[in-house]
Amino acid sequence: MRLEDILEKGYFPKELPPPFTTKQFSDHFKTMSNFKGMVGNSKTSIYSQFSIPKLSYFRTKVALINPYNFLVLAEIIKDNWAEIDTIFNGSSLTTSLPTINTYTYSTQKTFSEFREESLLQSLGKNTLLTTDISRFYSSVYTHSIPWAIHTKPVAKANNSNSLFGNAIDTAVRNCQDKQTNGIPIGPITSLIIAEILLCDIDKKLASSGSIIKGKRYIDDFMLFFNNSLEAEEFFKQLQSLLTDLQLEINSNKTKIEKMPFELDDVWISEISTFISSSYNLKQKNFLTKLYSKILGLVKQYPNKYIIKYLIVILEGIYIERASWDLFQTYLLNLTKLEPSILPNTLSIILSYYSKYSFPVNDIKDFYISLIEQHLEKGNHFEVTWSLWSLLELGVTIDVQTGNKILKSQDWCSKLILFHLEHMGLINGTLTQKSVEKTNINPNDLYDQKWLFIYESFQKGWLVTNSGTHPVMQDTFFKQLKDNNISFYDISERISRLDVDELESNNLLTFEIDNSIITDSLDSIKEKISNAENFNDIKEAYQDLLGSFENFIEDTNSEFSEHIQKLIDNKRDY
Predict the structure, then answer these.
(1) Residue 561's pLDDT is what?
(2) What value does the mean pLDDT of the chain take?
(3) Where does residue 214 rank: exposed (0-12), middle (13-18), buried (19+ CB within 10 A)?
(4) Does pLDDT of 375 surpass 90?
(5) Predicted TM-score (pTM) of this structure
């Protein structure tokens, strides 16, 4: 794996708004070839956390690791990639090996593809075991990394960094203030470490003599057996291997069940059936009924990604101007229920705004209310994306809101706030800025503030005496600035939908071709004129009804295929 790819596509969390980027870091890091000598191999830092929403009230904190420590870790992985790849190739269970795509990284298979591949292994089996690891990333014991790579006895006999497993262990701990419990969530390096640990477990399970049918996706297992006794025996073996790595099974997600079982969730079929059977309604009626259907399913299945599934479908449907105001209301209400779709919502709004030029007052009020609701809770994703949405819409915000954000510990939102100020989108003076200036100290570059401190100085947004600023006094960060490396690109914007293409392919506008009507009416006229009795007339009308039913069935099939394509393109909702 190329170091440039790790730095550009596997560093920052995918959940951040568009301006947060590591491309320049990837492009220019080679000019800092002596970066280890600048600070020293033992330099530690505390990564910045970014809280993102999950299902219900659960959240995950992804990591923005200090660039110095991430570069050290990434280089170790790159230098030892051949050995790591050998470990990966030793597993026949995994479907989640890391791969680099055009813009980011991903697992080799999606979660849905993992389930499908697992099912293909079920032939002739009667029992299904599903399980996963409790709080996997936050439970990894970093010293277990060299155990998995070199074996526990070898790693304990030689704890020097001459063993690259120990070097990875040290580098990970240096990313998190020497902590041995847990690894940062988000970067590709953590997926690589996860697969090192779990591919080793896969190999040990296979070497026990068991014929394993099924697959694994990171810490999720889906395995098939002849009977429940076999499944229970295998589960005990898996549990023992995980215990050796100081990991625990998630008992709430562990099930042993008889075949057959449902692979797809019932709610998915309900949504697909509803859309396919209702698309011929007037669009406003369709949207209202769809909105009501989704709210009902969310109440019925609170722990499913129903709204995220829906948003993929909505991105492929053309919304008529007459329906937009109603659609916008439903969209914002759904976004409030499921904030993880904030990026999708912004993309949809901006795409149609360029076509319809609707007023944005209600939209501004929506985003401001989200900021007020989530700022004090430390819900960074909602605040950051709301601010970014206001910026892309070119909407001015009140200085009172800005000062509240500056008082928070939300470092990403603070950067976007300064960007808003730079664009003249704050109606007043941010008095809290003077407090921020006085609070800067050299240690900030290696704690959770690092991105905010570096970028606000690099952009000239938080002006202090240049000579005494920590960036100019730190050898590594001064090199970043001297090479004009930025982690926040003010020119970046979210991608838009192609609304014109959606309009040209609009399958929700139910229009019958005139030729169908003309041909059908001509046919019935001829049959009626030649009718000899009532039964002949009845048969003519039944033929007409049949031709229309066939048309509706053909159109319904075409629409269903269109919806399924949208879902397949973004399957991991």
Answers:
(1) 57
(2) 89
(3) buried
(4) yes
(5) 0.88
CB 207 within 8 A of CB 150: no
Full DSSP string of 386-401:
HHHHHHHHT--B-HHH
Number of other residues whose CB lies within 10 A of the CB of residue 517: 11
pLDDT per residue as tens digits for the range 490-544: 999 999 999 999 998 875 444 444 455 555 556 666 666 666 666 766 676 666 6
What contacts 187, CB < 8 A, 6 or more positions away? Answer: 10, 11, 12, 13, 63, 65, 70
User: What would the 3-class secondary structure string for 167-231 be?
Assistant: HHHHHHHHHECCCCECCCCCCHHHHHHHHHHHHHHHHHHHHCCCCCEEEEECCEEEEEECCHHHH
- The Cα 540–Cα 398 span in angstroms is 69
Residue 373 tokens read as 């609701």
Helix 399-406 vs helix 411-422: angle between axes, to the nearest 10 degrees?
150
* Residue 59, phi then psi, degrees to nearest 5: -140, 160
DSSP assigned state of 260: P
The answer to whether the CB of 76 falls within 8 A of the CB of 171 is yes
Rg of the chain on CA atoms, in Å: 28
Q: How many CA atoms lie within 13 A of 511 on its CB side?
A: 7
Say if residues 319 and 327 touch (Cβ distance below 8 Å).
Answer: yes
φ, ψ for residue 126 (rounded to 5)? -115, -10
Q: In angstroms, rounded to a whole number, what is the distance separating the alpha carbons of residues 32 and 426?
A: 38
437 falls in which pLDDT band (50, 70, 90)? confident
Place of tokens 């790849």: 85
Under 8 Å between Cβ of 185 and 65: no
Alpha carbon distances (Å) from 131 to 56, 253, 358: 21, 6, 49
Contact 466, 472 (CB under 8 A): yes
